[in-house]
Amino acid sequence: MADPAFAFGENWARFLTSLSDRQIEQATGAVSTLVGSDLRGKTFVDIGSGSGLSSLAARRLGARVYSFDYDERSVACTQELRRRFFPHDEDWTVAQGSVLDRDYLATLGQFDIVYSWGVLHHTGQMWKAIENAAGLVRPGGLFIIGIYNFRGGRRGTATWTRLKRWYCSAARWQQLTWETAYVCWQLVSTAAVGRNPFRMIRDYHHGRGMSWRRDATDWLGGYPYEAATPAEILEFVRGRFGFVLAKQKIDLGLGVSEFVFESSHAP
Ligand SMILES: C[S@@+](CC[C@H](N)C(=O)[O-])C[C@H]1O[C@@H](n2cnc3c(N)ncnc32)[C@H](O)[C@@H]1O
After folding, report:
1. Which atom from ligand 1 is nearest to the alpha carbon of 99?
2. Which among 6, 71, 164 is the best mutation to test ligand 1's pocket, defined by most ligand atoms within 8 Å of the CB?
């Protein structure tokens, strides 16, 4: 039987129904923290663009943006954001394609900024995906990736791999039951440590402009799912490409760690 896969685009379509200006500002702040606030004259590829929010942020910061995603509904979401905010814009291209497809990537050329947040661990071939993505960085360019942190133990990566795989092949009522249980547990455990769960949800998008509820679904269902330790990422990217680590933000749990590498070769 084929491995099941999560319908990312469906979740992103729900996300776009309530996207606010404030969330767009938060996302723009998050992208600029990683890549800088003036991207005029730079080319930016958003691999696995999902909702299109990071692409929109990069375009707002002045970059010439190429967004692609494997899932056609995610592509439609990115197109929708382009239509809403940059209609008839020649400096923002949206396409369908896979980071695992080397023939497709070979048609794209290279970019000043290669950005792929929360994507490469969902391809089913994470190391190949990282390698292919890094190949799109032009000499002297930036390589920004967000990758799930690996944790051992009973509540670690292996258990969550099984849970996510199960979710993707479960009946809808089972998915909804599991989501409800998870969401309630999160709210109760937040309250149990003295935090207001409703404020936590309200403020959640401060990070990247995302929605707590949609991210919960993305977390429960996001399969294929892989993870890596920061040391594994550093060794792989430095060893294979000679890139230099410029910045990192490590998640100590099972969340996404962010890495900003600079291609060491000057243009
Ligand atoms: C968790 S979402 C992240 C979306 C976006 N980068 C963000 O930060 O919100 C993962 C996205 O990766 C896309 N994806 C999965 N496999 C892919 C592949 N092989 N090539 C390109 N995109 C892929 C999914 O369709 C989904 O939209």
Report:
1. 20
2. 71
Provide the number of structural domains found in the chain: 2
Residue 2's pLDDT band (cuts 50, 70, 90): confident
What gap in Å lies between CA 166 and CA 47, rounded to an integer? 26
Range of the domain at 186: 157-221
Does residue 170 form part of some domain? yes
Our mutation pick for probing the ligand 1 site, out of 68, 70, 119, 121, counting the most ligand atoms within 8 A of Cβ, is 119
Whole-Å CA distances, 241 to 102, 147, 149, 250 = 17, 18, 21, 21
Residues 38 and 126 in one domain: yes
Residue nearest (by alpha carbon) to ligand 1 atom 14: 48
If asked whether residues 209 and 114 sit together in one domain, one would say no
How do residues 16-68 score in pLDDT, each as one tens digit? 999 999 999 999 999 999 999 999 999 999 999 999 999 999 999 999 999 99
Nearest CA to ligand 1 atom 10: 119
Q: Do 212 and 238 fall into the same domain? A: no
In three-state secondary structure terms, 144 is strand
Q: Helix count (H) and strand count (E) of the chain?
A: 11, 7
> Are residues 181 and 143 located together in one domain of the fold?
no
Band of residue 267 on the pLDDT scale cut at 50, 70, 90: very low
pLDDT tens sequence across 207-266: 888 888 999 999 999 999 999 999 999 999 999 999 999 999 999 999 999 999 999 865
CA of 246 to the centre of ligand 1 (A): 24
* CA-proximal residue: ligand 1, atom 18 (nearest): 98
